[in-house]
Amino acid sequence: MTAPQRLTDRKREAIIQAAIAEFRANGFDITSMDKIAATAGVSKRTVYNHFPSKEELFAEILNQLWARVTAEQEAAYRPDLPLRDQLRLMLQAKLQMLADDNFLDLARVAIAATIHSPERAQNMVARMSEREEGLTVWIRAAQADGLLKPVAPDFAAQQVQGLLKSFAFWPQISMGQPGLSPEMQHTVVESALDMFLACYEL
Q: Which Gene Ontology terms cover its molecular function (predicted)?
């Protein structure tokens, strides 16, 4: 890679980090491209060279957010391990990611930014559903192995993740509740496992 390309990449990353800081501190509507440029230490023209609009910049941040979500929970199906053990690891990884303050702050910004823009909300939901593939793929593989009932994999994945989010995401996002203690995380995961496997295991 040439030096100018590296500088361009560094500037792009500086813009993204500045935008994350500004969106977290001030919300989507109040944050301006001018302020992002100032925080990043680049010209406004440089910001627009990388991102044609604030919406595009916000979309890139959401992409990185969802990429993190999936990176935390990618797990290939293992026919040699009990379903419960495999699923426990995925749910624990999901809970850890949901407990991350940076993730929660950005999720709050994302939700606030979409409340007044149905189109933006639809784009965000489409991105999220594209990204939560890891568990869906795992459920499909377990079904192919004859260990889970023939439920729609994306439905079952959303269902079990909903069990986690009702304790470890929505109360923190909407009511400012503290994150779960390790004991409560354990309880939530084991309870979700009980319910999922009682419903779908063959």
A: DNA-binding transcription factor activity; transcription cis-regulatory region binding
